[in-house]
Amino acid sequence: MEDRIITVKDVVHVWEVGPLTSSLLSAAMTGSALTHSPHHTTLLMMLDLSKPEELWATLEECLTIARSAMRMSFDDNTIKALRDCRKRENNPKNETHEGETEPFPLKLCIVGGRYDEFKEFNSDRKQLIGRALRAAAHALGAGLHYHSCRDTSLVRRAKDMLSHYGFGSQLTKSVCIDYEKPLLVPVGLDSFTQIGLNLGQGRNAHILESIKQMYVTHVPQTTKENENPQDLEDPANDPNFREPIIDRLRAQREEVKRKEIGILLQEMLEGRALKIPIPEPM
Question: For the whole model, what pTM was predicted?
Answer without folding.
Answer: 0.75
